[in-house]
Amino acid sequence: MGGKHKQAQRTKNNARPSSSCRSAELxxxxxxxxxxxxxxxxxxxxxxxxxxxxxxxxxxxxxxxLVLKKMSKKDATTKSKALQEFTELVKTSDIEVVKxxxxxxxxxxxxxxxxTEHKVRExxxxxxxxVVLKSKRNLAPYLKQFAxxxxxxxxxxxxxxxxxxxxxxxxxxPKNKIKEAILYCQEEILLYICENLTIHTAETxxxxxxTSPEDAEAxxxxxxISSLHGYALYLQQLCTKEIENQEELNIKIISDNxxxxxVKHKVLSIKSAWFCVITSLCQKSPNFLTKEFARIVGxxxxxxxxxxxxxxxxxxxxxxxxxxxxxxxxxYVNIDKAVYPKLWKLLKEGGFGNACVIxxxxxxxxxxxxxxxxxxxxxxxxxxxxxxxxxxxxxTRSRYESLAISTAYMECLQYxxxxxxxxxxxxxxxxxxxxxxxxxxxxxxxxASYKGLxxxxxxxxxxxxxxxxxxxxxxxxxxxxxxxxxxxxxxQGLLLNLEIAYDKEMLSQFSSRQIELLLSLKHIxxxxxxxxxFGTEEVTENVNNDNHNSSSxxxxxxxxxxxxxxxxxxxxxYVKFINEKHSKELVECLGSLVQDFDSEYFFKRxxxxxxxxxxxxxxxxxxxxxxxxxxxxxTICSNxxxxxxxxLFKYLNYExxxxxxxxxxxxxxxxxxxxxxxxxxxxxxxxxxxxxxWLHNDAVSKFLxxxxxxxxxxxxxPELQLILKKAFMEKHNGDLYLSANAVxxxxxxxxxxxxxxxxxxxxxxxxxSFAAHVSTILYSTNYKLQFGDELLLAMFxxxxxxxxxxxxxxxxxxxxxxxxxxxxxxxxxxxxxWDEFKKLCSKCAGIVTNAVFSDTHDYNINHMIKIIVSFxxxxxxxxxxxxxxxxxxxxxxxxxxxxxxxxxxxxxxxYMLGHLCTPYESISFEYDLNETIINKYFIxxxxxxxxxxxxxxxxxxxxxxxxxxxxxxxxxxxxVYSSDIQELLVNLLESLTVSMIFVEHYSCTKHSxxxxxxxNSMQQKLKSIFSIMDEQSLTxxxxxxxxxxxxNNGLSVKLxxxxxxxxxxxxxxxxxxxxxxxxxxxxxxxxxxxxxxAFSKCVNYQQVYNCPNDTESIxxxxxxxxxxxxxxxxxxxxxxxxxISQETKSYFLFESNIVNSITWSQxxxxxxxxxxxSTMLKYKSNIxxxxxxxxxxxxxxxxxxxxxxxxxxxxxxMKTLIGALSELFVSVSExxxxxxxxxxxxxxxxxxxxDVNKDFVEMWLYISASYEDKSNELPIVxxxxxxxxxxxxxxxxYKVLFNNPNQKLPxxxxxxxxxxxxxxHSVYILQLWGYHMLQTLILGLVEVDLAAVTTNTPHEKGLIxxxxxxxxxxxxxxxxxxxxxxxxxxxxxxxxxxxDSYTYTSxxxxxxxxxxxxxxxxxxxxxxxxxxxxxxxxxxxxLLDNIYKLMPVEVMNHIEGxxxxxxxxxxxxxxxxxxxxxxxxxxxxxxxxxYFSALSQLPALVRQWWSQKEPRISQIVEKVTATFISPQLCxxxxxxxxxxxxxxxxxxxxVHPSVREVVAVYTVDEAQMELVITLKNNYPLTSxxxxxxxxxxxxxxxxxxxxxxxxVLHQNGRIWDALSLWNNNLDKKFDGVEECYIxxxxxxxxxxxxxKLSCHTCKKKFHxxxxxxxxxxxxxxxxxxxxxxx
Length: 1686
Hints:
Elements: H1 20-27, H2 62-71, H3 76-92, H4 95-101, H5 105-112, H6 118-135, H7 147-152, H8 159-172, H9 178-184, H10 186-199, H11 202-205, H12 213-237, H13 240-244, H14 247-255, H15 257-261, H16 268-284, H17 293-301, H18 309-325, H19 335-348, H20 355-358, H21 362-367, H22 375-390, H23 393-396, H24 399-419, H25 424-444, H26 450-466, H27 476-501, H28 504-522, E1 532-534, E2 537-539, H29 557-581, H30 584-596, H31 600-611, H32 621-631, H33 639-649, H34 654-665, H35 670-680, H36 689-694, H37 698-712, H38 718-727, H39 740-755, H40 764-778, H41 790-799, H42 811-831, H43 834-854, H44 858-873, H45 882-890, H46 895-912, H47 931-948, H48 982-1001, H49 1008-1026, H50 1031-1047, H51 1051-1063, H52 1068-1081, H53 1085-1094, H54 1110-1119, H55 1127-1143, H56 1145-1148, H57 1160-1179, H58 1185-1203, H59 1212-1234, H60 1238-1266, H61 1279-1286, H62 1294-1299, H63 1308-1319, H64 1324-1351, H65 1360-1363, H66 1365-1378, H67 1396-1417, H68 1420-1433, H69 1435-1446, H70 1449-1452, H71 1460-1467, H72 1480-1497, H73 1499-1507, H74 1511-1540, E3 1547-1552, E4 1557-1564, E5 1567-1574, E6 1585-1590, ...
Antiparallel strand pairs: 1-2, 3-4, 4-5, 5-6, 7-8
C-alpha cells in the first residue's frame, strides 16, 4: 500500500535466484579441475590478488578448491565460514594434500589478514596457525610472500586476531630461530612497512567498489598502527649491525615527509606507535637519525604537554631516549619558548592525571638541562609549579598520583641541593621556600597525601645526616641544623595558631600528622642508588658519590639528639596546651608520642619542667603533680593518661609503685579503674611482682566480677571484655593473675548463663565463648578440679541441648564449647583418680539421660549419640577406663524396672494369643505400665546400639553408592572387649525381643510406630556388632542366654530364637534339637513347650510325640498343626479329649456349678482345646463327621456357658478363654462358608446359629458397655483381647439379628445405639468395634427401610438415617468447632493421632462411611429419600466443607501427573483392621475416600454444593476431582455399562473410554435412534453432555431426554440407570404401535415416521408418504384395504 516495490532477485531463464552456498554445494566433488579465479567477476574478487588457470595445479583437492572459492566472496560471513572449513580441512587432511594448497595460500592470506571484518582476520590467523602446524618446514619456500602482513599482524587492533597471529608466528619458529627468521625476511618486511607508511592511502589499500569510505579509513589506520609497531618490533629484535644492512630502506622510511606527519595524526594510537618507533630508533640505530635531529627534537618536545594517557607513556620514553641520544639537544629547539612553557603547564596541572607516568621522568629531564641554566630562576619556577601540581585536584584525589608527585618533588629537590651544595644561600632558600611550605601544607591541609611526603623528607634529612662528615659535602651539617631549627619553629607556630583558633578536629589532624612526621624521621631507611635507565644501554647518574656513606643504617648521635629535642619540645608544648585547654585529643597524641620515644631521660627533663626551680630527682612527682590530676579530671582522663602512668611506672621504686597502684583504687571513675587494670594485665607490666600482688586485691576481684555481670546483662563494652580475657592469662609459673575468689565469682555468673541460656538471648553467645576460653585454663593439668566441676557440667549440659537456636549461639561458638569440654575431659581422665573421675562421669551421664528424655525427637537422639561418643573418644588416652565409662553411661538404673514391666506386658499378650502357654502356673499383669515408659525404654536401647556402632573418626568419607559398616570403620564397640560389655549386649537382645513382640501385639498403641522404627534400627546394629565378634565371645553370649532360659518365663526362649534366626543365622532345627534334648532330660516340661512354640517352623512332630500329659500333647499338636500326616495324632488326641469330656464333663464344658472351684490348669485345658479346634478347622479340610459333631456341640455349649460368666472377663485367664472362644467362632464360621456339605450349613443355620449369635452379641454388648467409662484409662494389656474378640463382629449373621423371633435376642436398634456410642470412644479399637458392628448391620438396615418404602408403612422411628441424626450432629459440632478457624481451600488441618481431635474426626468419617454405604446398598427410590433427607438437614454440605479443610495439602497442590500414592487415597478404602494404629495419614485417607464415596453415591448433591461455592474454591474442587476421581468414576461407569450391555433387546451400546463417550443405538425395524452421552473431565461435577443424533419421527424424544438428564442430574442416578430409563421408554412406545399396511413397517424407511393417517372406515393406519405414493400411482383416492373413499 503505497510502499516501494521490492526488486526481485536476478534470475535467468526462469531459474531459481542465484545462491553462492547452493552453487558451492552443487559443485561437490565432481569438479574435475580448479580453474582459478580468473572466471570470477570483478565485483566478487578481493582486491590485492588474482589467480589464473595456469597458476593452479589441477591436482589440488576438490574440497580445498571449493573452500578457496568461498574465501573469494565479498560476504564476511561466507569468508568466515570458509576459513573455518579450511582450518578443519587442514587439520584433518594429509600433509601431501596440504602441500598442494600452499602455493595459493599466501595471496589469500595477505588479502584476508587485513580484511575490514575483524572476525575474518581472526579466522585467517587461526587458519594460518593450523597451516603452520601442519606444513612446518614445507612452508619455508613461501615464507617471504606473507612475511610482511604476518609480522605486522601481531599488532592488529583486534586483540584476538593479534593473539592468533602472534601464536602462529611463535609456533612457526623455535625461540632461538625467531631472530634468524626476521633477518631472513627483513627486506620483505621493510618493503611492506615502507609501502604502508609512505605510499599507501585509504583508497589504495581497499577496493572502493566493495568497501565503504569509513571501512577503508578504518583499515588504513589499522594498517598504519600495525606497521609502526611492527617497525618498532623489527628494530628491537635485530642488532644495530643487522639493521644497518638494510640502511637504504630504513633511510627511505625515516626521511619520508609522510612519516614525520604521523606525529600530528588525529588518531592517538598512531601517535603512540610513532613515538615507539622513535624510541627504538634512538636506542638501536641512532646513526639513521643524524640528519633528522632537528625534526626529532622539535616533534618530541612540541608534545611535551600531551595529556592523553594513550600517548603519554610512549612520548616520555621517546623524550628520554632523545635526551640520551642527542647530547646537545637544546641546540635544535628554543628551550625558553618551546620547552619551559609546556613543562610549567604540565607541572602546574599535576601531569593532567598522568603523574604516575610522567613525574618519575622529571629527574632525568632536569639532569639533562643545558649547563648554563640559571638555577635560581629555573628551579624556583620548577618547584613552584610542581607544588601547585601537588595541590591540584587530580593529584589530591589519587593516592598514587600524589605519591608520584611528592616522590619526584623531593628527589628533584635533593638533586638540585646536591648539585648546588656549595651555594648555601640558594640551598637554604630552597629548604625555606620549597621544603617547609610543602611540609606545612601536608601538616595542615586535610586533602594532602602526607605519608609519602614525610617518608621522602625523612630520606633527605637522613641522607644529609649520614653524609655530614663527607669532605665533598661539608655544608650538609648546616642544612640539617637549618631543617631542625625551622621544624621546631614550624611546630610551635602551628600549635600556637591552633591554640588561638582551638578547632578540635584541626588539632587532632595536626597532632596525628605531626607524630607521623616524627616517626618517619625516627625510622631509618637505606638510600637507593638513583639511576636513569634507557633500554639496554644505561646512562647512570649517581646521585650519591661513591664515597658517600650511604650504606650505613645507623644515624649519628647529633641526628637523634636533634630529633629528641624536637620531640621533647613538642611534648612540653602539648603539656602546656592540655593544662590550658583540657584537650583530651592532645592527651592521646602525647601518650602516643611518649610511648614511641620512651626514655628515662625524657621523664627527667619533663620532671624538671614540672618542678621548675624546685627540681627533685624523684620522677614520681610527675604522677602526683601532673598525671594524677589528669586522672581525676573527667575532661582529660583517658586511657592515654594511664599509658603515660605505666610508661613512668617502670622507672619507679617499689614503694612508689605500691603508692601509685593503691591510688588507682581511690579513683571515682570506674572506667578509668578498668583502664588501670587492663594496663596492669598487659605485657610487660604484668611481669612486675608489685602489679601481680595488687591484682589479687579485693577491689580488683569485685571489679572483674562486675564486668562478667555486665557482660551477662549486655551492659559491658569491648574494652571490658578484653580486660576479662586478660585476667585469665597465666603467669610463667602457671598461676593465674587473678585470685581464687575472683575465679569462683566469675564462674558462678557464667553458670547462671549456661544453665538458663534462654533468659540471656542477647549475650549468651559471648558468654558461652568466654566460658569455653576459661575452661581451657581452669581444667588443665595444673589445676585439675581445683576450681570445682560446676563450669564443666554447665558447659556439658548446654552442649547436650539440641534446640539451641543458631541465631542466638553461633555454630562457631558451639564448636568452641564442644572442644572445650572434650579437652577438659581428656585432661581429667588422665589426671584424676578413678573414684573422682567416676563421680564426674556419673554427673555427666545424668545430664545425658535428662537430655535424651526431655526431647525424644530423632534429631535430639542423634545429637546425644554424638555427645556420648565424643565423651568416650576423650578416653582414648585412658583406654582401660573406656569400658567402665561406657557401662556408666549406657547401663542406667532405670533400664531393669522398665524392661521388667514391658516383659510382663509382652508375656501377657503372648499368653492371651496362645503364643506362650502356661498350663501349670497362673500369671497376671501386676505392673502399672505407663505408656511413656514404652517410648523411653526403646529410645534408650536404640541409643545404646547406635553408640556402640558409631564410628570413632570425626568424618567418614563415604560415597553414595557404598555402605560404611562396622567391619570397615573403627567404632566404639571396637574400643572395648565384648566380655566387658556382655550384660549390655544381652540387654540389647532382650530389648529387641520385647520390641518384636510389642510391635506384633500392640500395633494399635500410640508408640507402636516408634517401637517398630527402633526395633529395625536395633536389629541392624546388633547384626553388625555380632558379625565381627569372635567365636569365644559369641559362646559366652549364648551361654548367658541359655542361663536366662531357665530363670525366665518364656521370653528368653523367644530371645534365643531371635538370636539364632535374625542375628547370627544358625541352624534352627539343630539348635532346637540340642536344647530340647537337654531340657527334656532335665524334665523341664514348660521350657520344652516354649521351645516348641518358638521353633515350631522347624520342629518335627516325632520329636515331641512322647508326651504323657494330656494338656501338653494338645499344645504340641495345635502348635504343629501346619505339618502334614497328622491324622493319627489328631485322632489320638481327640480320643483323649473325649475321655476327658466324659470324665470331667462339668469342668470341661465350663458349667456354672463348678466355675468357682475350677483350677487354672483345668481352664488352660479348655483354652488349649479351643485353640486345637480352631487350628484344625483352619489347616485341615478332611475333618470327620464325628470330629465335627464333637467340635460344634462342644463349641455351642462353651459359648452358652461362658456367656453366662461374661461379667468375669476382666481377669487375664477369662480374657484368654473368651479370646480363644472367639477364634473358634471365627474358624467355625469360615469353615461353614467354605464347606461343600449342605447338611452342615443347614444344621448350623437351623439349629446353632441363632443361639451362638445371641450369646456373642450379648457378650459384645456387655464388654463394650464395660468400656464406656472414658474416665478410666484402658489398660494396655487389654488391647490384644479387644483385637481378638472384635473379630467376631464381621462373622455375625445380620439375618439372624433382624429376622429372629426370639425375644431374648437383643434388638438391632440396641446394637445401633451401642455402636454409635462406641464411635466416639477415645480408644480407636473400640471405635472400630462400633464401626464393624454397623457394617454388619448395613444390609439389614437397608432391608428395613426398603420394606417400609415398598409397603408404604414407615418405621416408627422413621428412616434409618434419622436414627443416626443425633450422633452425626453432635460429632459434626465438635469437628466444626475444631475446623472453624481454617479457611476452605487455603488451609489444611493436620489431625495429630491419639488426641481428642483425632477421636472425633475419625468417628465423624467412620459414621459418614456407614451412611454412604447405606446409600450404596439402597435402591434408586430409597437412595433418593436418603439424599432428600441429607439435603434438608444440610449435613452433606457440612461434610464437604470439612473434607476440603482436611484434604491433604499435596492433593490440593498437585497440578500435573498422577502420584500413585495420592491416587490410592481415593481409589482404595481406608484400613479398618482392628490391629491397625492411628496416624494423620489415616485421617487423610478417610477424608479422600469419603469424598470419593460422596461423589459416587450422591453426585447430584455434591454438584449442587460445588455450584454454590465461590470461583476460587470451585476451581480447587474441580482440579482435585478431575485429577483423582473423575478417571476412576468414569472407568467404573463404563465397566458397569460393558458388564450389562447385553441385557437390552433392541438397544446396542458402544463404549469409547478414550474419549469418555457412550453411544446407544435403539433399532426398530430398519430405523435407528442414536443417543450419545459424553462425560466431561470433571465428571460428575459437570453433567454429562447428551445428544440425540438420529431420531425417529413422531417419538417424544425430547421428553425422554429430559427424563434421562433429570435422572443423572437431580436423582443421583448413574449412566447405566439413565440408559435403562431411555430404553424402557422406547420399548413401551414401540411395543403398542401398529405397522403401516402399505409398506408393512412400523417406521418409514425414508422419513423414519410412525404410521399416523388412519382410514375412517377400517381404522387401518398408514405412513403419510406411503399413502401419498399409493394415491399417485393408482390414480385413486380410496383406502388400499377397504377400498372406501379415504
